[in-house]
Amino acid sequence: MTEKVNEGQDILDISLQYFGDIENLFDIFTDNPSLTLNSNLTFAQDVEINNADKGIIANKEFFRKNNFVVINLAENEIATLGDYNIDFNNDYDI
């Protein structure tokens, strides 16, 4: 089945949206040979989704029932704390 990309979604978001996890990411790559992990998806771009019966059913049902669109566009504040150099213990309370 062909699905449309929502504004701001990347390939990982698509996998989460339609499979409930990212473990089936390679199914998307198989069905869409032009896509890679670094692909910049555009709004309303067609993406072929097959084997939609795979994945975590509870997650997929939650997204569908709540009309929830997975978009991980925002920067994760946890990942931006600290500068990850040799003074790691000074960046975090360890």
Helix-strand blueprint:
Blueprint: E1 2-4, H1 11-19, H2 25-31, E2 46-48, H3 57-65, H4 77-80, H5 88-91
Antiparallel strand pairs: 1-2
Helix pairs in contact: 1-3
Plain-language structure description:
This protein is mainly alpha-helical. The protein has one domain (2-80). Helices cover 35% and strands 6% of the residues. The protein contains five helices and two strands. Strands 1-2 form a two-stranded antiparallel sheet. Helix 1 packs across helix 3. The longest helix has 9 residues, at 11-19. The chain is globular. The chain starts with a strand and ends with a helix.
Record field, number of beta strands: 2
* Shape verdict: globular
What is the distance, rounded to the nearest whole angstrom, between the alpha carbons of the first and last residues?
49 Å
Count of helical regions: 5
Runs in which pLDDT lies below 50 for 5 or more consecutive residues are: 76-80
Share of helix, binned: 25-40%
The largest pleated sheet is described as: 2 strands, antiparallel
Give Rg in angstroms: 16 Å
- H/E element order: EHHEHHH
Oligomer: single chain
Attribute tags:
mainly alpha, 5 helices, 6% strand
Can I get a quick summary?
The protein is mainly alpha-helical.
